[in-house]
Amino acid sequence: MSTPTPEFPKHPFLLSIQEVEQALETNIDNGLATNQVPQRQEKYGPNELDVGGAIAWYTIFIRQLANAMVLVLFFAMALSFGIKDWVEGGVLAAVIILNVSIGFYQEYGAEKKMDALRALSSPSATVLRDGKTIVIPNAEVVPGDIVSLKMGDTIPADIRVIEAMNLNCDESSLTGEAIPVEKVTANDLMVHGTDKQAAEEGDLGIGDRINIAYATTIVRKGRGRGIVIATGMATEVGKIAASTAKKHRKAGRSMNWKKYGKAQPIKGFFRRTYDFFGKFLGLTEGTPLQIKLAKLAYFLFFCALLLAVVVFGVNKFNLARHEIIIYAISTGIAIIPESLVAVLTITMVVATTVMRKANVVVRDLSALEALGGVTNICSDKTGTLTQGAMIVKKAWLPSKTVYTVRDSMDPNNPTAGSVTQAEVKPEDEKRDYDQERTTQAIKFDVPDEKASPPAKKEPEVEAEITPDLRMFLLSAALCNLATVRYDEQDEKWKTTGEPTEIALQVFTHRFKLGKKGLEAKGWRQLAEFPFDSSIKRMSVIYEVPRDNDAQVDATNSLVFTKGAVERVLDLCSHLGIGEDRQPMTEEIKTQVLDQMTNFASQGQRVLAIAYKAWDGKYTEPEDRSPSADDAIRATAESDLTLLGLAGIYDPPRRETTPAIHECSQAGIKVHMLTGDHPETAKAIAKEVGIIPHNLGVFPAHIAEHLVMKATDFDKLTDEEIDALEELPLVIARCAPETKTRMIDALRRRNAFMAMTGDGVNDAPSLSRADVGIAMGSGSDVAKSASKIVLTDDKFNSIVAAIREGRRMFSNIQKFVLHLLTSNVGEVILLIAGLGFRDASELSVFPISPLEILWINMLTSSFPAFGLGREKANRDVMRKPPHDKRRGVFTNQVLVDMMVYGTLMGTCTLMTFVIVVYGMYGGNLGHDCNITYSESCNAVFRARAAVFAELTWMILLSAWEFKDIRRSLFRLNADDESSFPVFKDVWENRFLFFSVVIGGFSVFATIYIPYLNTSVFKHKGISWEWGVVFGMTLIFILGMEAWKFIKRHFDILDDHKVVRGAWAQGEDGGKRFNKTMSFSSLKSWRSRGRTMSQRVVS
Q1: Cα torsion 1079, 879, 361, 886: sign
Q2: How is this protein annotated for GO cellular component (predicted)?
C-alpha cells in the first residue's frame, strides 16, 4: 500500500526552510495546529511501514494443528474411522474442530493484543503542535510536523533539517555508510566531486542530501529540529521496504557446497529440516516456558504410545478386536491435557493486559516468566527512585557565598519562593561512625541533625545580583538546552528539556537572566559539545554581544561548561572572577570538594559551572571529522575558570520506600546505580531505605563496600569482586561499563537481575540483563534493547510488574497441577481397568474414550482458564523468587500431582468395583466397549457413576488449587468470618461458574437418551449417586488432609525469606534493631551466594 506524498515545487533538499514551511502549510515556531492533524492523518495515513510484521492467521492455524495434543486426537480419530466406529470418529473430529477453533480464536486475539502492546513501546517522537512540545507515537506523525531530535532518538520520518547543533545521524541501515553523517540546514548543497550546486533531484543521492534526516536512522550526537516531509511508505526506507523482502537464515543453513565444502548441502538440509519441524512443533520458537510445555506435550505423546502398547500387550496384541484399539485410544487420550497450551496463552495475555494498566509494557513474553525469578534489581536514581522534578536548592560561589532557594517545591515556576544569601564558615568536623564501632558492633540510632550539626552561617538576607553571580547565571543559562516560558493561555509556567537543565534554567529566570532573554540581547551560540556520559560534562561556545551586562570583552568568544564536579574541577586552572580570581591549588580543590560533599550529603546533585575566554572569535573548522571535533572540544574544555557549584535536589517519590520494603519482604535486593556523587547517592539511598541511616548496624568490612564509587568498583578484578561478602548496594558516578560489570558479578553469584536504563549507552547492559527495563522517557535505542518499558518511569511499577509476574507463575503452577492431576487419575483408572475382563477375556474400560474427551476438553479446560485468572495470593510478595532452573515443576507440584492423581484414580476405581461387584456380582457383560445390551447394564451404570464422580472431583479440585497449601475452607488466614469458603469461591466468578455449570452438565450427559448409551457408553443411575457423593467427599477430605500434612510438618514448602537485623525500605531505613547478632550477620552474608536462603538487605 503506497502512502501519498506532499507536493513540493522541487525535492525538499533543494528548497529553503521557508519554502518547505510554505509548501507544507506549517509554522516552524508553533508547529501544526491541532485541527490540521486529523485531515493530514486521513490524507497520508499512519506513519508505519507496511512490511507484513504481524503474524499471519494461517501461521496460527497451522500452529494449532501441529499441537501435540491435537496430533493425539488426529491419531485417535484415524483409528476410529479405520475400525468403522463412525460415532466415536465423528465425535473426535468435532472435538478437533472445536479445540483448533477455540485455540485459533484465543491465540489470534492474543497476538493482536501483543501487537498493540508492542506498539506502545515503539519509538516515539517529540513534536511541536499549537506551540506546545508533546511526545506522540511515531505512527501519529504527519507531514508538516516540527520534530525535535536529540542523541539516541530514532528519527520518526523523513525530515528536512531546520536546526542542527552538532547533529550527526547513523545512516548505516539505509546507505551502508558506517560513519555518522553530520547534518546541515542550508540548501546550497554541491554535486559530489564538482563545484556545481545541486539543482535537480538526480544530482545527489540520498546519502549526500545532508539537510535531510531519514526515517529509522538514529541520532548519534548533537540535537536539532526538522519539518516532516514524508511518512510511512513514502519515506526512503519505506520505498526500499516496498521493493525488497529479504529472508535471513540462521548460520550454518547454507546449501552452497562451493563456499562451505561438499558436506555443507547435507548439513544445511538437515539443519533446515530441524528448524522447520522445530518451529512447526513449537520446540524451537516461543518463550522458555512455552518450549518447556511443548516438550512436555510430546513427552506425554510418547507416553500415550507406550500405554497403548501396554494395552495391546495385556490383550495379547489381538488387533482383530476393535475394542482393544478403542481401549488403547482411551488410554492415550487420558494422558494428554488437551487444553494446556490454550490456557497458557490466555494467561499470558491477561498478564500483559494487567501490566499495561500498571504502566508496564511487555515487549517480550519471556520477560513475564523471568519476572517471578528476579532476585536483584539494579535501578537508576533520577526519575525512577526520585520524582525527576529537580529544583536548584543551593548555589555556592567562590566568594564563600551560598544562595538558597526557599519555600518552593514547584520545579517549573521561577516566581515561587525566594532566594536568600549568606556567608558560610567552614563546617565543624563531621562525625565518623567507623570510629565509634565497638567489637560487638553495637550501634545506637542518633538523629542526623544531632550527629552532624549544620555549618555555621551568617544571617541570611535577600539575594542580590553581583558580578560573580551574574557570570555564574550566564553560564548556567547558556550552557543549557531547556526552555522555560509562561503560557498566557493556561496561566502557568511550562518547561521542556532534561530535568537537571530545567532546574538550572528556572534558577536563572529567578534573576531575569534566562537563555531566551540573553539570546535576544545578542548572545549567539556558535558551537555545542553535547553531554557525554563517559566524561559527564557539556560545553557551548557563544559569541559575545558588544554591549552586555556582564561587561565581558566582546573580542573573544566565551566557552561555558557544566558537569560533574570532579570532571570539571580537573579542567580548571583558576577560580572566581574579578578581584576574587585566583589560581586553582590543591588546597582550594579540597575546599571545593568539601563544599560539594556538604551539598551532596543533603541529597543534592552537585554540578560545577565554569567558563573560559576563547582566543579570539571562534570559527567553524573545515574538518568536521570525529577526531577533529574531539580536538576542538579538548581545547575548549581546558584552562577553565570555576564559577561555582549548583546543588539540585530531586525529592524521592513517596511510593518508592514502600516498594523497596515490599522487595525486601519478597527476597529481592535493590541496588542503586547512579551517576551522582557518592554523598548524594548515599543520602538518597538512606532516605528511600536502600541502606540504613546508620551503617554501624553492619561490621566495618561490610559497611565500607555498601556504597562505592564506580572508579573504585571498576578497579577491582573479577576475583576481588567475587571475594566481597556483599556486592555494593549503591554505586555512584556509575558509567555504562560499570552496569555491565555489575550484571556479570551478580550472574556469577547465581542471581537473576533486572536492570533499568534510559540512555543510548545503557543499551548493552539492558540487553545483557536477565530482564532489561527501559524508561518510557528514555531513548529509543534503550527501549529497543529492553524487554520491558515503564511508561511512567516509577520504581513501584517495576515492583508491580514483579508481583504480576509472580501471580502469573503461581497461576500457571495451579492450572498445570489441575490438568495433570486429572490425567494421572484417568491413567491409573484405565491401566488398573485392564484387569476387568469380560467373558471373551477382553478388557472392559471403566470409562469410555468420549467420556475422557468430554472431561478433558470441556469439564477441566474452563476451570483451568479460571485458575489462570486467579488474583495474586496475599503472600505472593512474601516468598523468595522461584528457582528459574526448576520452573513450574517444583518438587511440591510433582508430588502433589502424584498424590492427588493417585487419590483420584483410587476413588474412581473403587466406585467402579463397588457398583459392578458389590451390586451386580461382577457381571461385565459382553461387548460392552462397543454397544449396549442388557448384559452390559452393570458396566454402563458403573461408567456413569465413575464419569460423574471424576467430573466432580476435577471441578472441585480447581477450587482446592486456588491455594496449593492452605485449606479451601480458610484460604485467607486473616479472614475472621466463621465460614468464608463461599465468599472465597465467589471471588473468581469465571472459575465459580465453570465449576457450577460443569457440575450440572453431568446430569444431561447421563440422562439424555441415545446420547448416554450410544455416544458416552453409560446409562442413567439411581442409588449409585450415594457412592458418587461419598467418594467425592473422601477425595476432598484426602486433599485437605494432604494440605494439612504439608503445613503441619512444613514439607515441600518454598524456602522462606530470612530476615536479618535490618530490612531495606523499613520505614525509610530509619527504624532498625540496635544490635546485630552473629546469626543475623550469617544470614546477611549467605543471601547473595545461595538461592535457597536470602536476607533482604
Answers
A1: positive
A2: plasma membrane
Question: How much is the pLDDT for 927?
Answer: 83
Judge whether residue 974 has pLDDT over 80.
no
Query: What does the H/E/C string look like for 183-252?
Result: CCCCCCCECCCCCCECCCHHHCCHHHCCCEECCCCEEEEEEEEEEEEECHHHCHHHHHHHHCCCCCCCCC
Q: Burial, 1038: exposed, middle or buried (Cβ in 10 Å; 0-12, 13-18, 19+)?
A: middle
Smallest Cα–Cα separation from 745: which of 762, 761, 729?
A: 729
380 part of the active site: yes
CB-side exposure of 876: number of CA atoms within 13 Å? Answer: 23
DSSP state of 137: E
Phi/psi at 649 (nearest 5 deg)?
Answer: -105, 130
Q: What is the pLDDT of residues 321-334, one digit of tens each?
A: 666 777 777 777 77
Answer whether 944's CB lies under 8 Å from 865's CB.
Answer: no
The CA distance from 767 to 774, in Å, is 10
Catalytic pick from 158, 203, 380, 896? 380
C-alpha span between 855 and 847 (Å, rounded): 11
pLDDT tens digits, residue range 689-725?
A: 999 988 888 888 888 899 999 889 999 999 999 999 9
> Terminal CA-to-CA distance of the chain, rounded, Å?
57
Q: Which residue has the higher pLDDT, 670 or 102?
A: 670
Q: Are 954 and 860 in contact (CB under 8 A)?
A: yes
- Nearest-angstrom CA–CA distance, 793 and 720: 34
Tell me: the pLDDT tens digits for 822-842? Answer: 989 988 998 888 888 887 777
CA distance readout (Å), 373 to 775, 883, 946: 21, 6, 41
Dihedral sign, Cα of residue 901, residue 904, residue 910, residue 913: negative
Dist CA 785 CA 764 (whole Å): 8
CA distance linking residue 85 with residue 660, whole number of Å: 63
What is the rounded distance in angstroms from the CA atom of residue 395 to the CA atom of residue 648?
9
The pLDDT score that the predictor gives to residue 67 is 66
Q: Classify 647 as helix, strand or coil.
A: strand
CA-to-CA dists, residue 869 to 233, 359, 814, 890, angstroms: 41, 20, 11, 21
Classified as helix, coil or strand, 161 is strand
